[in-house]
Design a protein that fits this description.
The protein has 16 helices and 10 strands. By secondary structure, it is of the alpha/beta class. It folds into 4 domains: 30 residues; 72 residues; 166 residues, Dna Topoisomerase Vi A Subunit, Chain: A, domain 2 (3-Layer(aba) Sandwich); 36 residues, no CATH class. It has a 4-stranded parallel beta sheet with strand order 6-5-7-8. Strands 1-2 form a two-stranded parallel sheet. Strand 7, helix 9 and strand 8 form a beta-alpha-beta unit.
């Protein structure tokens, strides 16, 4: 038997066995695929997890919608559950605040009423306006647009300089301490709860470590006027650095006065007592010496070697209550000046009242008189604007009215 005949004989004998074996393999593969498809746990995406927890996180951060919540506060409130659902170890905070949260708000109409705050990223100023520039933050822009919508032409009023307020400039008779916070995003919350007014505080903030201008201001206020500097910071290496550079000399700035700096910032005891969530951090440098220099304990340095906690880990109400507790603990209270200053203020208030009453009487008489509008008013306005392009149209009209009034007085 030649080779070809031998191969054919073997194939004939084993054909049925091969067919049976392949059938078994196919059926086993099908059974395995069905089992895997029915029992496999599907991976939850970041978007799905965020969508599930977003409303709960916002309500937690905003005290059930009663206070403004910073976008990062919502991120902290949502992060733990998102990581659990997605089985991830980290959540990119910028992706949450800049992508997931805005996308959720866009796709959920009810969320468009949420009071969410983002840091101001610039300023907007009107021409010929006496009002301060508008910070380009969420609430500031919202309030500015609201003023536009509610604006109407108010009657002419006469104001007395000073009014019921005693004129001050600087700390004397106005504020008892300076509160420094490393995050600008909390300022709308402080405005809403009137934190500065309740404790007569001056509040300042910078993004991160203070600059030379802010240290110059602190040096010139807290030293000569002997008022404390209250430093509110995150519990991390940068927070300790901020605390240190606000009262100790650095290469860029040497303080002229001794500053009473009080650490109001997060410490490990606060983190544990308030059960605040921490996050993993990787340092690009050795921070142990700096932490030791600025007063961190051994236990805190061990924690900060790999983790950190932001003020954003608080909900808005919890943060305010915690800060107010710290302020009371350190004896920060409202300003009440000496009796001599109070007497001066009372005299000024009565003088202002008498002037307001007299001006109101004169204003009422002025409104009774009919005003004759010049026929060539438009031509005169345009002539003034051509001569001084920096002038606003209503300034031109006020100038013409003033000239006409003076001419009338001279004629009388």
């Amino acid at each position: 038997m030649n080779g070809t005949a031998l191969v054919k004989s073997i194939e004939t004998v084993t054909r049925r066995w091969c067919q049976q074996r392949k059938r078994e393999e196919r059926e086993f593969s099908a059974r395995a695929s069905r089992w895997d498809a029915m029992t496999r746990t599907r991976t939850v995406s970041l978007k799905e997890a965020a969508w599930d927890v977003m409303e709960t996180a916002y309500l937690k951060a905003s005290s059930n919608g009663t206070l403004p919540a910073h976008a990062r506060q919502i991120m902290y409130a949502a992060r733990g559950e998102i990581l659990r659902l997605t089985k991830r170890e980290q959540l990119n905070d910028a992706y949450f605040t800049q992508v997931l949260l805005p996308d959720y708000i866009e796709q959920h109409p009810e969320a468009q009423e949420w009071d969410i705050v983002y840091d101001a990223r610039g300023h907007f100023a009107e021409p010929h306006a006496s009002a301060d520039p508008v910070s380009l933050g969420t609430i500031q822009v919202r309030e500015y647009l609201g003023r536009i919508q509610s604006h109407y032409l108010r009657p002419v009023q006469a104001f007395v300089s000073g009014g019921e307020r005693f004129p001050t400039c600087g700390p004397q008779n106005r504020y008892s301490a300076v509160l420094f916070i490393e995050k600008e995003g909390f300022l709308p919350l402080f405005d809403r709860v009137k934190l500065a007014e309740h404790f007569d505080l001056a509040i300042m903030s910078t993004k991160g470590v203070s600059n030379v201008a802010s240290r110059t201001l602190i040096d010139s206020l807290c030293g000569p006027y002997n008022i404390p500097l209250l430093v509110l910071h995150d519990f991390d290496a940068d927070g300790f650095k901020i605390l240190g550079t606000l009262s100790a000399d650095t290469r860029r700035y040497a303080f002229k006065h001794s500053i009473q700096a009080i650490d109001l910032g997060l410490r490990l005891d606060d983190v544990e007592k308030c059960k605040l969530e921490s996050e993993v951090v990787a340092h690009s440098r050795n921070v142990e010496n700096m932490l030791t220099e600025y007063g961190a304990t051994d236990k805190e340095m061990e924690f900060l070697a790999s983790r950190r906690v932001e003020l954003n880990a608080f909900g808005s109400r919890e943060l305010v209550d915690w800060i107010e507790g710290k302020l009371r603990q350190h004896g920060i209270r409202k300003i009440v000046p000496d009796t001599q200053t109070q007497a001066k203020a009372y005299g000024r208030a009565m003088e202002a009242l008498r002037l307001e009453q007299a001006i109101a009487h004169v204003a009422a008489n002025a409104r009774r008189n009919e005003t004759e509008v010049p026929r060539d008013l438009n031509r005169k306005v345009r002539a003034l604007l051509q001569g001084d392009p920096s002038m606003a149209w209503d300034e031109a009209i006020a100038t013409l009215a003033r000239e006409a009034g003076m001419n009338q007085s001279e004629g009388d």
